[in-house]
Amino acid sequence: MRIHEVRTHASAEEFPKEDHLAWKFAKIASDPVDIESEVTEMIINRIIDNAAVSAASVLRQPVTVARNQAEAHPAENGAQVFGIEGKYSAEWAALANGTAVRELDFHDTFLAAEYSHPGDNIPPLVAVAQAKGSTGADLIRGIATAYEVQVDLVKGICLHEHKIDHVAHLGPSVAAGLGTLLHLDEDTIYQAIGQALHTTTATRQSRKGEISSWKAFAPAFAGKMAIEAVDRAMRGEGAPAPIWEGEDGVIAWLLSGKDHVYQVPLPEPGEPKRGILDTYTKEHSAEYQSQAPIDLARSMKPQVEAAGGIDNVESIVLHTSHHTHYVIGTGANDPQKMDPHASRETLDHSIMYIFAVALQDGTWHHERSYARERATQADTVELWHKISTVEDPEWTRRYHSEDPAEKAFGARAVITMKDGTVIEEELAVADAHPLGARPFERANYIEKFRILAEGVVSEAEQERFLNAVQSLPNLEDLNELNIVLEPEVLAKAAKVREGLL
């Protein structure tokens, strides 16, 4: 890897296209480097992971709305939509499938200078691959590029400190991945990346205050926009340039300004694209910074019970990173994060609520833990409101560390009982993290899929899908990656109003 300095350039300044960050990503996308076997295996794992969380969310209202929108756009040479038969326009299939993947906030993550869910790249790439008749090998190469570009952007450019949503890194990574998938030339990919970034920058209000279901749609919409950007670029249309570094570009006006220099790591020509191996998935359906605290709460439950039980807790303070404190902790100053009637999406971004339920129940469930009766349970609300977070500089330093052995997303929990007893423990990474107590491997991904697909996807369809996806390097028909539900299951989907399209 080599570090590239990225800064604003005045319009009058000499700045050749070959030095633009978008061009450098286009070069990466067009580099025909071989894909390493462990990267291929992880790509298969993440496709299984996406299918698992899609099965768990497919009947929910936001996913049903997105699916209905896709159904309004049938296409003879189109892509497939999770849960149903037929072919639909690729960009609308990407929107539907991307929403299904993101709805429960239960798939993979990567956290560095910025945060991300790089599995959001997969639905738009699969949709285009199906529509264009690509092979499994093509898809693997495209996904490897998309993950690489997203991971490199997340390592180098922070968005959230400027209240820009992290999907601004997703549009460019999808466009780059599509460039690899479709074997496009560098200039076409360059133009597509610029358009994709220009059309997917948005504020992060979608993850602040009363969080709505748009949180699930936002990444899916970015993937849809990236497909449309590639389509226009293939037809000869250009993009604003230089998109990141221009005088009126993203860095100058949306990020740290014209005097700031970003350090973005990129693979050298011929260097394998290994970005996906830096990422990790979730065992629990909750924001990633909640993963280790959930496991921590579960491990502390016996000690709390031995000290008198939940009723005797006086206070709980979670010492954690800047990001956790200010995004999902009390540092956010969001009263909604303490509201028993808040939306599921809001509770998902309240570490106080999540720690309380995990400590009481000793477990976490993607539906039961968010149920309205669970959130309004009197003793839960009482415990929840005794929990606060504080930023600890050491946890912030570890959060941003580039050393994988030191990087941490956890917390130190200090539980003070009414009699003065103090119970204190910490956990740096979640049990399912590659460096955790029980790192996720292929068997864990399959188990997660079977658990979430139970009662939704027939056993025969589960087996068919698992056999197809695990043969991805040699798979010729990518329509086999779709999962179709029985009519009686689909009939249980949320009822939604008629729309415009």
Structure description:
The protein contains 20 helices and nine strands. The model has no long low-confidence stretch (mean pLDDT 96). 44% of the residues lie in helices and 10% in strands. It folds into two domains: 2-278, 2-methylcitrate dehydratase PrpD (Orthogonal Bundle); 288-427, 60s Ribosomal Protein L30, Chain: A, CATH 3.30.1330. The protein has 501 residues and is of the alpha+beta class. The protein is globular.
Which strands sit side by side, in order, in the main sheet? Answer: 7-6-8-9
Gyration radius, in Å = 22 Å
Shape descriptor: globular
Spans where pLDDT lies below 50 across 5 or more residues: none
CATH evolutionary superfamily of the largest domain? 2-methylcitrate dehydratase PrpD
Question: Could you say which structural class the secondary elements and strand pairing correspond to?
Answer: alpha+beta
**How much beta, percentage-wise?**
5-15%
Under CATH at level 1, the class of the largest domain stands as Mainly Alpha
**Helical region count?**
20
The averaged pLDDT comes out at 96
Helix proportion range: 40-55%
Q: What's the CATH topology label of the largest domain? A: 2-methylcitrate dehydratase PrpD
Q: How far apart are the termini? A: 46 Å
* Known CATH architecture of the largest domain: Orthogonal Bundle
Biggest β-sheet description: 4 strands, mixed
GO molecular function: 2-methylcitrate dehydratase activity; aconitate hydratase activity
Domain MmgE/PrpD C-terminal: 284-472
Catalytic activity: citrate = D-threo-isocitrate; (2S,3S)-2-methylcitrate = 2-methyl-cis-aconitate + H2O
Keywords: Lyase, Tricarboxylic acid cycle
